[in-house]
Amino acid sequence: MGRCQQYIVGSKTDIIGMNMIATKECDDESRPLQVSTAEKPFLTVVTVVLNRREYLERTIISVLEQTFKGIEYIIIDGGSTDGTTEVIEKFGNRISFWKSEPDKGIYDAMNKAVAAATGEWLHFLNAGDMYYHKDTVQRALNCPYGAADLLYGDEEVVYDEECSVIKKARPLKDIWKGMAFNHQSLFTKTTLLRRHPFELTYRIAADYEFILFSLAQGTGFYYLGFPIAKVALGGLSDRNIRVHIREQWQIARKFRNTPEVNFYYRYAVISATFKKMLKALLPQHARNALVRYKYR
Which of 27, 1, 264, 292 is nearest to 157 (CA)? Predict the structure, then answer.
């Protein structure tokens, strides 16, 4: 059983000035499920996709197999030409809403989904990613999250068929160092993203900007303490790691522009360059060994 922790922001001008309160244990079996009183889905799950035919079906099946029944499922396709829409049509009668049209990038597609969502909560699961277990949503929404508007957990990162590791969410006090968790491990109140949509000026890190903005506004965060998703390595941020770091640097400076922040990100860019060179030189089994050592 994972531990659940709720976080609040201590100062609206300093994202590092946070207090940790209400450390509790998730009691999945004895606590009644918190549900919406409105006649609408409690959770909207969103998958945005572009030319990922070979990965999409496993994501769809993972969503449809969830034991929690109050799910609305939305798929936004960016105008795929590889047969992705054929996969969507295969499950069409079990998908609440989908559309296929060109967009301005992943965050434009995600904003379209937010506009169409009717659930009280919202969760993004990328094409190729899966829920950690069939009861993941049930377990997450059964935690005593109280007034928190953002629930986050851990993730399983899948490097290849022979190597996967559980990556724990980092403490929110270190959020200025980049995302403490991936958006696949985050449940968000839909109203938050309606009030502050993803900024399209960022190509890779708009979800990070949303998190820092929410913290700066004093929004309640709740740590679930267990894995939410199985995430395949090789997504947009993985393929463009240095661009991702630079965008996070730019965003971090918006909320806390200090010498410490700038030094950290300068080092992060250099480190990412070195790691990319090292990765190109090492065989796969050696890279896997390093990963297992890091997350042991």
Answer: 292
Q: Render pLDDT for 39-96 as a digit per residue (tens, 0 to 9).
A: 678 999 999 999 999 999 999 999 999 999 899 999 999 999 999 999 999 999 999 9
Residues 64 and 81: their CA atoms lie apart, in Å, by: 24
Distance CA 239, CA 37 (A): 42
How many domains in the chain? 1
Residues 45, 125: contact at Cβ < 8 Å? yes
Spatial separation of the C-alpha atoms in residues 296 and 285, rounded to whole Å: 16
Report the CATH number that the domain containing residue 102 is assigned in CATH: 3.90.550.10
